[in-house]
Amino acid sequence: MTDVQTPPFYATGKRKTAVARVWIAPGGGNISINGRDGDDYFDRQSSRMIAKQSLELLEASDKYDVKATIAGGGQSAQAEALRHGIARALLSEDPERRKALKRAGFLTRDARKKERKKPGQPGARKHFQYSKR
Asked: How does pLDDT run across 72-83, given as a tens digit for each residue?
């Protein structure tokens, strides 16, 4: 009998301008981000916790290896983008997990970004003072 390897499941997670490309495969719970260990990549404990939330919700933190490449945004946005990507990858493996992940809010993409500056004005919402004369 041959040992059949399951292919890794892929998903993209996003938040603000951060984009996380995530691959999950059955394994021992290792998280690798941009070629570095997950605990080394995120400085803050809160970011590490946020990144692992979707795995811990399904009690699967030691059942899957996660490999991710993250670009853009800040540390908090990257952690939430990784959480979103992991949740979507877990969902692509087993659609039965949708209810739990959706209830926890891990499948929602947070699209809020900084509003762009408008031409002829000093900022996104600020306008030059009107002068009648």
From this structure: 999 999 999 999
Domain 9-104 has CATH 1.10.10.10: no
Q: Which neighbouring-strand residues pair with 14?
A: 19
Average pLDDT over residues 34-62: 93
Q: Are strands 31-33 and 64-71 parallel, antiparallel or unpaired?
A: parallel
Helix (H) or strand (E) holding 113: none
For residue 66, the cross-strand partners are 24, 31
CB atoms within 10 A of CB 25: 15
The domains of the chain are located at: 9-104
| φ, ψ dihedrals at 102, nearest 5° | -65, -40
Task: Indicate the pairing of strand 9-15 with strand 36-37.
Answer: unpaired
Residue 83, SS3 per DSSP? helix
